[in-house]
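Structure first, sequence second, as always.
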């Protein structure tokens, strides 16, 4: 079984409920539910990586 990182950009629908971390040099996390839109950070489009399903 392959453990592939799940990365989504701002504006896409969240594919898994859980804790998502901002990808890059700034570290912040958000908890999102499946179907919610991935948020922007400080008004900018960013990439989010799933760190914990739940």
């Amino acid at each position: 079984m392959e453990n592939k990182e799940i990365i989504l950009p701002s504006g896409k629908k969240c594919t898994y409920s859980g804790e998502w971390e901002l990808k890059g040099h700034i570290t912040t996390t958000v908890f999102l539910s499946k179907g919610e839109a991935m948020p922007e950070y400080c008004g900018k489009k960013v990439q989010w990586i799933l760190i914990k399903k739940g």
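Margin note: The beta strands are 7-9, 18-22, 29-32, 47-53.
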